[in-house]
Amino acid sequence: MAASCGDIQVKEIDKRASGQAFEVILGTPAPDAKGEFPLSPPKKKDLSLEEIQRKLEAAEERRKSHEAEVLKHLAEKREHEKEVQRKAMEENNNFSKIAEEKLNQKMEANKENKEALQAAMSEKFKEKDKKLEEACVSMMLLEDWAYTWNAIWHLNR
């Protein structure tokens, strides 16, 4: 398919599901047509001292504005760094406090377990001492009885 409009021709090259391709052919320009683009650049007008001064002041203002923006950005960055550092210190302190509390709880639990074990051992030893004492008393009574019986036996003979 080829279509033309004045000095422009459009020719279809390829048609696919993904899109179409066209070739556009431009006609030759008329010799009497004036080009849209001048051959020489426009002449610069002479700038007055006031215009130059105004442009310099505007440039200085832009420079100061840019410098202020950069300083503001740096201040915000420093503030953010301080905030991050403060949060890190706060988290570190919280971690230290939690770790210390856990350690104290473990130490207290160990102390209580040790005291309970010592109390149990002490009770066990007291019971053994009591049984030993009872055994000693029984032994003494048995010895007394044996001595008495032996004495009686010798007398009755």
From TrEMBL:
The gene is LOC110488175. It is found in: Cytoplasm, Cytoskeleton. It comes from Oncorhynchus mykiss (Rainbow trout). Belongs to the stathmin family. Residues 49-124 form a coiled coil. GO terms for cellular component: cytoplasm; microtubule; neuron projection. Its main location: cytoplasm. PANTHER family: STATHMIN. GO terms for biological process: microtubule depolymerization; neuron projection development; regulation of microtubule polymerization or depolymerization. InterPro entries: Stathmin_CS (IPR030514), Stathmin_fam (IPR000956), Stathmin_sf (IPR036002). Keywords: Coiled coil, Cytoplasm, Cytoskeleton, Microtubule, Phosphoprotein. One of its GO terms (molecular function) is tubulin binding. This is Stathmin. Signal peptide: none annotated.
